[in-house]
Design a protein that fits this description.
heterodimer; A: alpha+beta; seven-stranded mixed beta sheet; 21% strand; B: alpha/beta; Rossmann fold; two-stranded antiparallel ribbon; 5 helices; 22% helix; Phosphoribosylformylglycinamidine synthase subunit PurQ (chain B); purine biosynthesis (chain B); PRibForGlyAmidine_synth_PurQ (chain B); EC 6.3.5.3 (chain B); ligase (chain B)
Chain lengths: 793, 234
């Protein structure tokens, strides 16, 4: 189907009704002409769904109603394929008093103490970003920021987990620079610091990059705002940007359809962002919240006015009357269906008591924000809309917002899964470096491989300092911001990390989702923050493929089980299906964000080795685990076997040790071990701190078996971290580890500084590499790959 | 009574809160100024902070320069009021013809947020007197239109009159003659692309091993201690 058709002439109603007085379809006409053919298929609805709408309404829908049902019942808005699996996140949620608002609202909210609440969520903007990298990524940031704002919070940080095709592929050179510039272009102009994220390359994302965006906001715990429209007589006010023709059909068409040959034809469906408008809207909203001028608020995201009116009405008194033709338009030729579907950015809808309307409009006036009273809350139980005096919509709003179709899609373990898992990357299967020279060469090559290389070229296009509360930024295990915006002078902070390894999830989706959670959890704990809650962006292929549906079901089950065990509930998130090129699905890629809290940001642990003579300790067990590893991927292009074994109890203990070490001042540095193993972690910490290190590799593994240097350096066993401790703290720290049953081994010492001469990384008995060589290898590739790109924004 | 430092908020200003925080950090009384309000509320000095005023539409600083508060500030600056324009504020000062030159798109066309090393060339202004002459400072830049340009004659004049305030040690964006900031002849109006207000403490500033040196995170503080001292001694 072509989106051009949808936006140009959405319903072809003129031909059906050309002999009547009004050119648009109305409820009266719908009742009078039950036989009129309607383009429900073109709008992505099945015949069953269409018939259900007719049953609900007792007549055929008007074209505006059809547009609304098609978009609200789309996969993107209704979660119709995922809902049966997502409910585990509620059913298995660990009981925690910290959870103030759970899944279902615009974003989850957690209590972080000192009377403050934090709201956070991650979302996908994958398909728009492939079509139009700059605007797709930019509006992805804009959308998630508005979700956070809608909860009543000031947005205080964003993060962007990104996945692309191979680094050297020509299309990656088109998509990546545009996405990075779009994330930066929007977030920078908004004044919300970007404090982390990921950039991962894999061939499976070549025709379908993943552009996920996370935002976190802070507010006083007693000031949470919800999307509801209570109180008959209250005014419904649309404010922010005017409604234009951009993004029409974006939700139902773009987000739920796969890409094929006609990709470029979908260009007009991508929304265009204006971050300046959004910045003004943020300040305007926060002033409105502070003066307590709204009883309910909703942002206009996917499905625009359709979604905001139905969700507000469905969650409120149950009725709403809307005079749709009052909406300020950018393009006066828009039809009512287009106005309802438009995904023009930077718009909000508020429900305001009549007595407060004047004060509300005054704040909008101060910020030069256009505001229009569009409707009124009623107790009719109906959502009714008028267009130039005619009723065009008359529906029960809950049937749109909450009573959409739910599918139990068939799923089955793929036939190929056993063979994939049996293809274990043993020493016999994949040749391993055999000499000290080969180990050295492997290390230098890996730290410069696209997935492990330094990402500064991209990350410095993001403002990470704005607002002045960024305590940890890019390159640290997690981003960390002080909560000063809601409580001036506080030392309270939150840490955030997102992780997700599609290769692990492909090998075992249950374990892969858990490993993503474990890594994010570990990253948060490594900075000294206590993990509190989870958000997830579940990026998968087609739900109509039983293989994919099995991956999805397994990932949800794995994540829900692990959240229960770690005591960190899922507070909200997003599902993105149909991530595929032709028939080829992406690796299942659950991206998991963990939020942690730290009482005193001054106590944070950084990852840089900064003091000579400090002792390096390896925490956790190392095993011969290379299934899905960076080494197998980069050196051999191999994916097979099982992902690293996961022990959630061990992850919890490791987290406790890292948090206690930070709180009690025992740790100078901590860095989690994940992609690339011990070698990668030590190189990063050395380069960041401008110091060398002398490593003495452990000779036996957890079970007392000999551990060869290759495994010690590059295995990706879970539940590990490397820490630097002052000599005076070594005994106290190792005693704590032993008391808690956490394996701890002395693996070296921080040695030599760049400032006083040549610093090196020495792996004792094996090889030595100067830091300058490592720096060139690690920091050179990204600039070389993408440094010449020119982005057409 | 402590010196009052005013910070202007235009629509799209982003760094106003941090500039107010920096003023408070050195013991000044921070005063928020609103773009529609011509009244300067008896401030002793003004900071035009960074951000994207009016979305940088038309040209960075081009619209903000015509806001009501700027009428008053332009007059007061000509009368000697100390004014520091940081990043977008520098662009506003250029558009207002209080300083020469202009800022164009960075050499690599990208937004750059990087901690850069500067050399303070002129420590005789109201805003830099607390630096040693030739002092080096690591201060973040975060801009997309940060490349200072001017015609050769203007550049020569700036050099000859000692009005180059600070230079990059490693030019990040192709700025003419590595110029990061300039001053007017009187030394009261100063424009700077880097953000000294984001280098005022170890916790949030550029601290650690940066640009091949060990830095404390507080290298931007002298901009604010300088103005405080010059106001007290005035």
């Amino acid at each position: 189907m072509s989106t051009g058709h949808v936006s140009d002439q959405p319903f072809d109603t003129t031909s059906v009704f050309e002999d009547t007085a009004v050119a648009f379809d109305t409820v009266a006409k719908a009742a009078a002409t039950p036989e009129a053919k309607q383009p429900y298929r073109e709008l992505g609805m099945t015949e069953d769904e269409y018939l259900r709408v007719r049953e609900i309404l007792g007549r055929r829908p008007s074209s505006s109603e059809l547009a609304m049902y098609s978009v609200m019942w789309s996969e993107h808005c209704s979660y119709k394929s995922s809902r049966v699996h997502l409910k585990q996140f509620g059913e298995k949620a660990p009981k925690t008093a910290a959870l103030l608002v759970g899944p279902g609202e615009n974003a989850g909210v957690v209590d972080v103490g000192e009377g403050l609440a934090v709201t956070f969520k991650v979302e996908s903007h994958n398909h728009p970003s492939y079509v139009e990298p700059y605007q797709g990524a930019a509006t992805g940031v804009g959308g998630i920021v508005r979700d956070i704002l809608t909860m009543g919070a000031r947005p205080i940080a964003v993060m962007d987990p990104l996945r692309f095709g191979p680094a050297e592929a020509p299309d990656t050179a088109r998509v990546l620079p545009g996405v990075v510039a779009g994330v930066g272009g929007y977030g920078n102009c908004l004044g919300v610091p970007n404090i982390g994220g990921e950039i991962v390359f894999d061939p499976c994302y070549l025709g379908n990059p993943l552009v996920n965006a996370l935002c976190v906001g802070v507010m006083r715990a007693d000031e949470i705002k919800l999307a509801k429209a209570p109180g008959p007589g209250n005014q419904v006010i649309l404010f922010g940007a005017r409604t234009g023709g951009d993004g029409i059909g974006g939700a139902s068409v773009l987000a739920s359809a796969t890409f094929d040959e006609d990709g470029p034809a979908k260009r007009p469906s991508v929304q265009v962002g204006d971050p300046f408008m959004e910045k003004v809207l943020i300040e305007c909203c926060l002033e409105i919240f502070a003066a307590d001028l709204v009883v309910g608020i909703q942002d206009l995201g996917a499905a625009g006015l359709t979604c905001s009116t139905t969700e507000l009405a469905a969650a409120g008194t149950g009725g709403m009357d809307v005079w749709l033709d009052r909406a300020p338009l950018r393009d006066s030729t828009l039809t009512p269906e287009e106005v309802l579907m438009s995904e023009s950015q930077e718009r909000m809808m508020a429900v305001v008591e009549p007595a407060k309307v004047e004060a509300f409009l005054a704040v909008c006036e101060k910020w030069d924000v256009t505001a229009t009273a569009l409707g009124e809350v009623t107790d009719t139980g109906r959502l009714r809309m008028w267009w130039h005096g005619e009723v065009i919509v008359d529906v029960p709003p809950r049937t749109l917002a909450h009573e959409g179709p739910v599918y139990n899609r068939p799923f089955a373990r793929p036939e190929w899964q056993d063979a994939l898992q049996a293809d274990v990357p043993t020493a016999a299967r994949l040749r391993r470096p055999a000499s000290a020279d080969e180990l050295r060469e492997t290390l230098v090559n890996l730290v410069g491989s696209p997935n492990l290389a330094d990402k500064t070229w991209a990350l410095e296009q993001y403002d990470h300092r704005v607002q002045g509360n960024t305590v940890l930024g890019h390159g640290e295990d997690s981003g960390m911001v002080r909560l000063d915006a809601a409580l001036p002078g506080t030392s309270l902070g939150v840490a955030l990390s997102t992780d997700g390894n599609g290769r692990f999830a492909k090998l075992d989706p249950y374990a892969g989702a858990q490993l993503a959670l474990a890594e994010a959890y570990r990253n948060v704990a490594a900075t000294g923050a206590r993990p509190l809650a989870v958000t997830d962006c579940l990026n998968f292929g087609s739900p109509e493929d039983p293989d994919v549906m099995w991956q999805f079901a397994e990932a949800c089950r794995g994540l829900a089980d692990a959240c229960l065990e770690l005591g960190t509930p899922v507070t909200g998130g997003n599902v993105s299906f149909y991530n595929q090129t032709g028939e080829v699905n992406i690796h299942p890629t659950p991206v998991v964000g963990v939020l942690g809290v730290i009482d005193d940001v001054d106590r944070r642990t950084r990852s840089a080795f900064e003091r000579e003579g400090e002792i390096l300790l390896l925490l956790g067990d190392t095993r011969d685990e290379f299934g899905g590893s960076e080494w197998a991927h980069e050196v051999h292009g191999h994916l097979g076997g099982l992902p690293p074994r996961l022990d959630l109890h061990r992850e919890k203990v490791l987290g406790e040790v890292l948090i206690a070490g930070s709180r009690d001042g025992m740790l100078s540095a901590a860095h989690d071990l994940s992609d690339g193993g011990l070698a990668q972690a030590v190189v990063e910490s050395c380069l960041r701190g401008g110091h060398g290190a002398r490593l003495v590799l452990p000779e036996t593994d957890a079970d007392g078996n000999p551990l060869d240097p290759f495994v010690a350096l590059f295995a990706e066993s879970a539940g590990r971290a490397v820490v630097a401790v002052p000599r005076s703290e070594e005994l106290r720290f190792t005693d704590m580890c032993v008391a808690r049953g956490l394996p701890v081994a002395r693996v070296g010492v921080v040695d030599g500084t760049v400032l006083s001469g040549e610093a090196v990384l020495e792996v004792q008995g094996q090889f030595t590499v100067p830091l300058t060589e490592l720096r060139t290898a690690h920091e050179g590739p990204f600039r070389k790959l993408f440094g010449h790109s020119v982005v057409d924004a | 009574m402590p010196a009052r430092i005013g910070v202007v908020t235009f629509p799209g200003t982003l760094d106003d809160q941090q500039a107010l925080r920096a003023a408070a950090a050195v013991g000044a009384e921070p005063v928020a100024l609103w773009h529609k309000d011509r009244d300067l509320h008896q401030v002793d000095a003004v900071v035009l902070p960074g951000g994207f005023s009016y979305g940088d539409y038309l040209r960075a600083g081009a619209i903000a320069r015509f806001s009501p508060v700027m009428d008053t500030i332009i007059d007061a600056a000509r009368g000697g009021l100390p004014v520091l324009g940081i990043c977008n504020g520098f662009q506003v000062l250029c558009e207002a013809h209080l300083l020469e030159g202009a800022m164009i798109r960075n050499g690599d066309l990208h937004f750059i947020n990087r901690d850069v090393a500067l050399r303070i060339e002129n420590n005789r202004t109201a805003w830099t007197s607390d630096y040693e002459a030739g002092a080096q400072a690591v201060i973040p830049i975060k801009n997309v239109d940060g490349r200072f340009v001017a015609d050769e004659r203007t550049l020569d004049a700036l050099e000859a009159e000692g009005r180059v305030l600070a230079r990059y040690l490693a030019n990040p964006n192709g700025a003419a003659r590595d110029i990061a900031g300039i001053t007017n002849a009187a030394g009261n109006v100063v424009g700077l692309m880097p953000h000294p207000e984001y280098a005022i403490d170890e916790l949030t500033g550029p601290a650690g091993f940066i640009e091949n040196r060990r830095v404390p995170g507080t290298d931007g503080l002298p901009f604010f201690t300088s103005i405080l001292k010059s106001l007290v001694s005035a």
